[in-house]
Design a protein that fits this description.
With 211 residues, this protein is an alpha+beta fold. The chain is built from seven helices and nine strands; from the N terminus they run αβααβββββααααβββ. It has one domain: Methylpurine-DNA glycosylase (MPG) (3-methyladenine DNA Glycosylase, Chain A, Roll). It binds a DNA duplex (13 and 13 nucleotides) through β4, β5 and α6.
Length: 211
DNA sequence: AAGCGGATCGTCT
DNA sequence: GACGATCCGCTTG
């Protein structure tokens, strides 16, 4: 009991918030290095957290599949702002998906977070997902699922600064480093289908789809 | 195990 | 007025 408490305290102590400079780079580089980091959502004082195990890179220039391909609009404006902010969009009439803006201000690259390995707050995640009992792989394996599990919506989270210590949505580093990363084509798009800009932690069972 | 279609609505043409 | 960076349940094999 005491040991568990000390381990938890030590782990929290080791947690660091990723700085804005981390995100002010190419989406490919940010995507790869986001694997293994921890996405944290604080909802009504509770900490819902999961390790990022699957991501996709989208580019501000020369990427027909990106939401920013046709230029800046009210919907995608966050992508053209400073790096390290949440771009949350609503899709198919019922799902939310969350991205992190990358590259310097004015360039619209981003990384779509596609799957988490749940770490804390699993009971609440299951309730938010409408699942009982909680099957861990059903909680946050998929971009729509993870937003539902962490209560992320466009109305509440779009534009949040993920590098702000006071933010209710953060990305933290707990020291975990993936042993091997696999690159595959991106999922669910119809343009630029071939380019391998989807990255997963090799062998992780919480990815949304087998490689 | 894999494939199909319905649900559902904000955004841009 | 069409479509989409999805999910789920149902069907078939």
């Amino acid at each position: 009991m005491l040991t568990a408490f000390l381990l938890t305290a030590f782990k929290l102590f080791l947690m660091t918030l990723l700085p804005r400079s981390f995100f002010s780079r190419s989406p490919d580089a940010v995507a790869r290095e986001l694997l293994g980091k921890v996405l944290v959502s604080c909802i009504r004082g509770q900490r819902l957290a999961g390790r990022i195990v699957e991501v996709e890179a989208y580019f501000g220039k020369d990427d027909p599949a990106a939401h920013s391909a046709a230029g800046k609009t009210a919907r995608n404006a966050v992508l053209f702002g400073p790096p390290g902010h949440a771009y949350v969009y609503f899709i198919y009439g019922m799902h939310s998906c969350v991205n992190v803006s990358c590259e310097p201000e004015g360039q619209a690259g981003c990384v779509l977070i596609r799957a988490l390995e749940p770490l804390s707050g699993l009971d609440t995640m299951a309730r938010l997902r409408g699942l009982s009992p909680a099957k861990p792989k059903m909680l946050a394996s998929g971009p729509g699922r993870l937003c539902q599990a962490l209560a992320i919506t466009r109305a509440t989270h779009n534009g949040l600064d993920l590098t702000d210590p006071a933010s209710d949505l953060q990305i933290q580093d707990d020291g975990f480093r993936p042993e091997k990363i696999t690159a595959t084509p991106r999922i669910g798009i119809r343009k630029a289908v071939e380019n391998p800009h989807r990255f997963v932690i090799h062998g992780n069972t919480f990815v949304s789809k087998a490689p």
